[in-house]
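This section describes the prediction task in plain terms. A model, or a person checking by hand, is given the sequence of a single protein chain and must write out its three-dimensional structure as a string of tokens. No templates, partner chains or ligands are provided. The sample shown here is typical of the held-out split.
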Amino acid sequence: MHRTDKARTGGRQADEHLMEDSEAVNLAADWSDISQGLRKDLGHQLHSQWIKPIQLGALNRETGALDLYLPTEFSANWVRDRFHDRLQLAWSIARSEVRKVNIVVHPGRRQLPDLRLDDGRRPANDGASAIALAAGAMGDANFTSSVGLDPSLTFAAFVTGEANILACNAAQRMAALEQPQFSPLYLKAATGQGKTHLLHAIGHAYLQTHPRARIFYCSAERFMVEFVQALKSSQTIEFKARLRSFDLLLVDDIQFIIGKASAQEELLYTIDALLAEGKRLVFAADRAPQALDGVEPRLLSRLSMGLVADIQPADIELRKKILVSKLTRFAPLNVPEDVVDFLARTITRNIRELVGGLNKLIAYAQLTGQDVSLQLAEEQLTDILSANRRRITIDEIQRTVCQFYRIDRSEMSSKRRARAVVRPRQVAMYLSKVLTPRSYPEIGRKFGGRDHSTVIHAVRLIEDLRQRDADMDGDVRSLLRQLES
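The expected answer:
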């Protein structure tokens, strides 16, 4: 073979390896998302026992078949029997090219026999202790009311602020002993803002006030999977009877029921049946009912007939409160106030990322024996910070403040000393220091070439006024929300 031919062959092989590596990375990312969804749906114990051990195999582009590996024949059979349709649906939603999911034993593992003890118990090699719980979760006759509820997601652990107080109060009312004035409750929030936390909290609180209650918590995806399974096995009557026997129905991510006509119809009938009996229903989604495209009008009307409670993105004050509440778990570890301020100011997309960033920072500090510091946070959270960082400029701050106080933009640089001009200018200097990485001298130059000491005075003055003057604190909060949205 000529040297040029060898070079072309080597180049093609290198390209093929790069494509394979890229494909593996993309599959792993999709599996991470699917696995997290199943963890939320099934609960920590079931997920750890059966889903977490799954390893990704290769995707056959020609057949659309994806192999999922488990370590033993027993675990492969168990997952195949109970979760195959759910995994198939999740993968088909995540990647259209996946048309078939094969759940098999890892080819590099020894296939252990289904060992049975003398007393007829399940195989010891696959963690038989979880089988009773799993059967309770998936079986029709033994559905356990508390399955799927995360014990850490309670009202006591939910930090409130202006952004979520309405939704939290409505959720507590839904779980109270007395009958709520509204049903269903519809929680609307973007990803990671706390709607799933409130769903779990409602379930826990309702069980405290109604110890013998039957609760069904699931995602819309799980609802569809179980409904399809019931259709395939000709058990729709049993499915409907079981579903309508619950006292509290909690359905998360209702937006994923879009376009599923048969599942929508069954959910509609279930809502009508439960409401007629005075049962309680709570739904959560990332958009308002009217924004659910592909949902029939009758179902939209049921979803919005109660109370639609909107959870707004957390402002900087609420983000600080959440971080401080989480820090109690790590006492007596010292996390400086400037680190808390930095995280609350820069990780703004959602609460889940904010808490994840704090956990990652503290874990790294503990594992390496370093002190938690602002420098360590900037070094170790680069991925999270870059994903969240929206560059707010001093020009943008000045423009927003001038619109808020209804003054001309030129007053930010003018020499006028009238109170109606000076105070907005000081607020803009304060926000420039809080929301941008600019130094005091740099900020001063943007405000008509003022000295850095003038900026320092303005920042300290507004900080002090926020503590003493409720109107000033309200103005700053409102401006922060506008600039960070």
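For orientation: Confidence is low (pLDDT under 50) at residues 14-19, 109-146.
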